[in-house]
Amino acid sequence: MDPKPPSPPHVLIFPCPAQGHVNSMLKLTELLLPAGLHITFLISAKDHDRLSRFTTVHSRLSSYPGFRFHVIHGLYEGPIDTDEKLNLMLIDSLPKVTTPLLRNLLLDSQVTCFIADGILGFALDAAAGTGVPVMFFRTVSACAFWAYFCIPDLINSGDLPFQGTNLDERIVNVKGMEGFLRRRDLPSFCRSGLSNTTFQEVTNITRRTPDAHALILNTFEDLEGPILSHIQKHCPNIYTIGPLHAHLKARSISKSTSSNSLFQEDRTCIGWLDQHAPKSVLYVSFGSIATLTRDQLIEFWHGLVNSEKPFLWVIREDLVSSLDDENKVPSELEKDTKERGCLVGWAPQEDVLTHSAVGAFLTHNGWNSTLESIVEGVPMVSWPFFADQQPNSRFVEAVWKLGLDMKDTCDRRIVEKIVKEVMEVRKEEFEESARRMAKLAKESVSSGGSSYRNLDRLIEDIKKMSTQSN
Ligand code: UDP
Is 148 within a domain? Predict the structure, then answer.
């Protein structure tokens, strides 16, 4: 009798239930499936429902017989825009609800390898003793990861907690960032004091990364090589395989954009963009979590109108907590907004950034948004909200020279000045560096490029694990 053919490798993938995390880990999934891997993707009931309603992800993935969603019920599903709410999900709900589920899946489902979101440290505990190797996928940049990783060193050196209120004080104890890092560029949690639970949680989780079998990052060597070499001293087995969305296109797995939006996209803005001259429009979006106070909204709005650039602005339903119908468009700005503005609740962002009319991106520098801008060669104006976005925006300005960082302020005069600086005064300079970086990004995911090779290596390594466990 012929021996039973070995079963294909089975990978369990588990993202933190938030837009940026689900998006990039679904992209990872779509890159792994064509290699014949079987994948179980853990997803919250709310996100599963939203993906069904707003994307084609189900039909895209159901063409692979080895793919299935495993829906998690009973998770906290509210907003995560404050430390308290983030903790409710990260420290309370997620570990409580999913630890027993993970144990069952890891023990009973013949899992070859568990790719867990690296922000979910309890995944390591859940896998302990099961014999299943855990790979951490961090959805943030290498520079943000490294800043988080160095926090215990900053406590030892006395840089943390901050003494005094000067956020411009230099930080020289993060290797590779000595020349340009200021207090204000550290992850936002560093501002809240050492007893802050989110600060402690993210620091502890990040420090546990070397306990994982490997670290997978959505970045590429030409962008973050020097920082990666620092990380590698602690986490020797790193796979940099990004930018993932460009990687999917480069491998012709997806010809068009594979949207993983948890919100309904308003595609009318593409028609609006079609009516505009090349590189004339400022695209404005602060991602899925960031919120603005009403004052900040009004300052941004005046600044945008006063810059006299056409603007496409994503104003999510919950972007401003106190926005009511009566004051949606400030009356003094109504005429200019009608003439030059397009407001949507959620945009097909990847398609927007690909559009020739877009000349710059006013962004919160979430890592997905930053990479999407980099791949399309769109210069940035940075207004980071929280977490990894602060180091990202510093790198955008000081290291990659892809735009200007206006963190911690949104005075209307500053908004106007910086937008003009990026789109007029220093337009060519930023366009040139953005073009150069876009080329490197695309090369990295083309056949023979660093991310392309690293993905092949990741797939081979997972297949080897499967042979060993069969
Ligand atoms: N996004 C989108 N439409 C929008 C705003 C955002 O499709 O109107 C997508 C964007 O393309 C990115 C993701 O949502 O892939 C946001 O992730 P990011 O890491 O930039 O920020 P987060 O939402 O996690 O703060």
Answer: yes
Choose the residue to mutate in 51, 288, 367 for probing ligand 1, maximizing ligand atoms within 8 Å of C-beta: 288
Task: Tell the residue nearest (CA) to atom 17 of ligand 1.
Answer: 20
> How far does the centroid of ligand 1 lie from the alpha carbon of residue 363, in Å?
10
- 172 Cα–ligand 1 center, Å: 32
DSSP 3-state of 10:
strand
Kindly indicate the confidence band of residue 6, based on its pLDDT and cuts at 50, 70 and 90. Answer: confident
Catalytic residue among 21, 245, 247, 302: 21
* Site to substitute for ligand 1 among 259, 342, 349, most atoms within 8 A of C-beta: 349
CATH number at residue 84: 3.40.50.2000
Question: What is the Cα–Cα distance from 1 to 119, expressed in whole angstroms?
Answer: 47
Q: Can you give the pTM of this predicted structure?
A: 0.96
pLDDT in tens, 407-420: 999 999 999 999 99
Residue 211 appears among annotated catalytic residues = no
**Is 383 found in the same domain as 453?**
no
199-225 per-position pLDDT tens digit: 898 999 999 999 999 999 999 999 999
Q: Containing domain of residue 375, as a range?
A: 268-442
Contact 363, 392 (CB under 8 A): no
Please check whether residue 455 is in contact with residue 247, taking contact to mean a CB–CB distance below 8 angstroms. yes
Any idea of the CA torsion for 399, 400, 402, 405, to the nearest 10 degrees?
-30
Residue 278: alpha-carbon gap to chain centroid:
27
Question: Has residue 3 been placed in a domain?
Answer: no
- Of 407, 414, 360, nearest to 385 by C-alpha is 407
In the beta sheet, which residues pair with residue 217?
A: 138, 240
Would you state the structure tokens that stand for residue 137, as one six-digit string? 């996928």
Q: How far is CA 411 from the centre of its chain?
A: 26
Using alpha carbons, select from 266, 240, 220 the residue that is nearest to residue 371: 220
Q: 373 with 402, same domain?
A: yes
Residue 462 · residue 38 · CB < 8 Å: no
Residue 351's identity, in one-letter code, is: D
How far is Cα 396 from Cα 403, in angstroms, rounded to an integer? 6
User: Is 21 designated active site?
Assistant: yes
Distance (Å, whole) CA 41 – CA 170: 42
Name the 3-class secondary structure at 311.
strand
Specify the DSSP element, H or E, that contains 343.
Answer: strand 341-344
Among the atoms of ligand 1, which is closest to the Cα of residue 287? 23
Question: Pairing relation of β-strands 380-382 and 403-405?
Answer: parallel
Helix (H, G, I), strand (E, B) or coil at 19: helix
